[in-house]
Amino acid sequence: MKFINSNDDSILSKKIAVYFLQCVSLMIVFLGMFFSIFSAINHISIKVLSVNISGIVFGVLVFYLGIKYYLSVCNLKEKLLKNKYKFSWSNFNFQKGRKISSFIKGKF
Questions:
Q1: pLDDT digits (tens, 9 = 90+) for 52-92
Q2: From CA 43, how far away is CA 35, in angstroms rounded?
Q3: Which of 22, 70, 98, 106 has the smallest CB count inside 10 Å?
Q4: What's this model's pTM, rounded to 2 decimal places?
């Protein structure tokens, strides 16, 4: 019988979360490529502020943002899998009695 260390469990949960984010980012990349190709074949244009813009432009934009998101997730993966990072409530600054009016006045 093998006992799972809590550290191993947290690493596994981190890997699952990062894997999920990578899958989502790759889906965004493929959807951007698909929409660009689909727009090129079917001559799709989208009206934006009374100007017709080719659907290829939007597909390329989604493709670019997907690539950017994928690279960000890869960077996050490197940082998360280093075991020197641990969760701590002290990383969050909670102030008792903080009201919405302090946000409106700009006093965070």
A1: 888 899 999 999 999 999 999 888 888 877 766 666 667 66
A2: 11
A3: 106
A4: 0.64
- The identity of residue 90, as a single letter, is S
DSSP secondary structure letter of residue 29: H
Tokens in use for 14? 């981190």
Question: What DSSP element (H or E) covers 53?
Answer: strand 51-54
- Name the β-bridge partners of 51: 48
Beta bridge partners of 52: 47
Report the distance separating Cα 8 and Cα 83, nearest Å: 10
Q: What are phi and psi of 25, to 5 degrees?
A: -65, -35
Q: Facing residues of 47 across strands?
A: 52
CB 91, CB 50: distance < 8 Å: no
